[in-house]
Amino acid sequence: xxxxxxxxxxxxxxxYQQIARDPIMMTGLLASSAFVxxxxxxxxLRVAWEGFFDYQTGAFSLExxxxxxxxxxxxxxxxxxxxxxxxxxxxxxxxxxxxxxxAFTFVRxxxxxxxxxxxxxxxxxxxxxxxxxxxxxxxFGRSGLVTHDWLGIDFTxxxxxxxxxxxxxxxxxxxxxxxxxxxxxxxxERLDPAMEEAAQSLGASKLHILRxxxxxxxxxxxxxxxxxxxxxxxxxxxxxxLLTGQRNVLSTEIYLAVNGEYNQQKAAALSLxxxxxxxxxxxxxxxxxxxxxxxxxxxxxxxGQLSIKEWYIRWPFVIVTSLTLLLVIALYLSIAVGSFxxxxxxxxxxxxxxxxxxxxxxxxxxxxxxxxxxxxxxxAGVLGMVIAFLVVRKRFSGKEALDFVSNLGAxxxxxxxxxxxxxxFIDAPWPAVLLVFLAFLLYLLNAIEAxxxxxxxxxxxxxxxxxxxxxxxxAWGAWYxxxxxxxxxxxxxxxxxxxxxxxxxxxxxxxxxxxxAGLLLxxxxxxxxxxxxxxxxxxxxxxxxxxxxxSEWIDVFTQAPLPAHGFLLLAIxxxxxxxxxxGRWRLIFATxxxxxxxxxxxxxxxxxxxxxxxxxxxAYSVRSLPASLRAGVASLQQIDPAIExxxxxxxxxxQVTFRRITLxxxxxxxxxxxxxxxxxxxxxxxxxxFLTTPKWKILTVLILSEVEQGxxxxxxxxxxxxxFIVLAAIGLFYFLMGRAYKTDQVDFTIGGG
Length: 753
Hints:
The protein has helices at residues 2-20, 23-50, 63-66, 71-108, 114-122, 131-140, 145-150, 165-190, 194-201, 206-217, 219-235, 238-243, 250-259, 264-290, 311-339, 353-393, 399-411, 414-425, 430-448, 452-472, 478-499, 505-524, 526-537, 541-558, 562-578, 584-601, 613-636, 641-649, 654-682, 699-708, 712-741, and strands at 341-343, 347-350. The protein is mainly α. It has a two-stranded antiparallel sheet with strand order 1-2.
């Protein structure tokens, strides 16, 4: 038994040593694994831990789990859980059915204006998550245009109105049906029509073919869409906050536990309750997706799609689809008109005052949200492509775990991630920092290629010097520590260049300049930005807000936390040493590098990110990472590995092959992942609502605040601004795709798979 375990461990160790022969690939694996561990695994572990311990005394407690069995609380707890499950099941059923009807109409029923209709069906995916809830309140609320002004309904106590579980499900179905539509449409377009044609040639009617052939072939798509919509419904926060009325669901209970009761343990315990069904459904959804292979799908169908011309089949689909599109148009038209209306429900005269107020009050929110979304977008895109490359092209133990954890960012409700981020990063996450540091240290020691005694000596000396410097200069502050690190980084650069092979010296010099430049910017950056901010405040009005916001943006790039500089040094250290001469140069370089990195990583409270812009960027990136990953995996699976193998056989290393061969081939999928990520960032709420600060304001949170205070018209103006920004980004993307790849087709199914 022990020998079997030992051989398994040795085999896994050799797999990683094989990857470590390519320093670029190993660095990518470590960096991506560290990111998902810090910002996915660690927050979820902290939520799980916090749910069992009293947030004031720290004592073990099952209080909030016990409420499900306490007669005093049980009725409310079980009713909330029941309503949450009913909401998820009803939304998933209705959204999947509506998505199928729309997809079938567009693909099989010769629906007119297909491109425009397709675009209309996707509008809910590029608007704030509760935009449709606002529109429904404007049209069908107690003072709604349709219900009150046109139909003259005066709602009294006890009357059924839009507020409640039925109204919430209606809004969620309209909000999320595009996800099901994209999934089912993609499957419909790729179905091999041979089986349907065979059934038709045997005399089967179109209705019989639909019932016995087409629908069974689409079952995996139905299951995948249903499960995904179930998770989306349970994860939704904005719509339930506006429409639940006297009913409760778990997402709003979690939000109120944090923002109303300031009770982290209750929020964490309820998060665990919500996590059980969402994770279960996520696992089922992955299972169904993996079973897609039994569906008859080919790259190019053997014939054209089977067109439906029978009126008794075609017209019901066309009518339902037309009504759905008209409803979408009416809902978003009400948002557009509401943004120009003085006071909806009372005074419908047109005005621009809502936009004037929005740009005056919310200019910082608009700018900060756009900026942070733009910064997080390439992070999610690049990480997604790197992980996709590792998952598809490399063999190593833990590959499936990396893929699974990377996809959790979209599967776990945003409220749970937001709470996890607060709990995990309100203070230094020491266990996570130590584990990641140990992984990078092992990689660095492996790159030395020296005896075990030399590796132990490098470790002891480097750690002792680094921790000693961190302790000795901790009271001096981050600025002086960065100055010391800069001097040592310059020494490192000299050692690296002197000890490297002649043909690699120029490249090593430029690589080592990266951490040097980062530390130099950290030291000098505050001076010009402080001057710009002070000058901006003298301008007054919106210009003062714009200029001060821009100075804070510069700080995002120059004032990265010191542990990030330390991990950067460890990440590039292995590659630099692979280009250095073996022997004393590597030992000296590794010792100095480990000392500097240790000092930077273990100073103060490393990665206590709550209140900074970096935690918002991380939350955005985690939420959109799965879309970029799926896009990359789908694209790489269509590329013959022989192309990359030919590049490697000609002497190119992994980074050259990836940059010159793989990346150009997957560029369309990469760009599609970027635009989806940006749209998701701009419209995100549930994961961000706990992370905003007066310094970093997020537009979706501001919209929710306006609605809660009764400012529906201003909220509609903000919503239109979000939609315009996302549409402008999509338009720019289509333009770039057309110029670079002679196409304007984008596979947006990555957002729903």
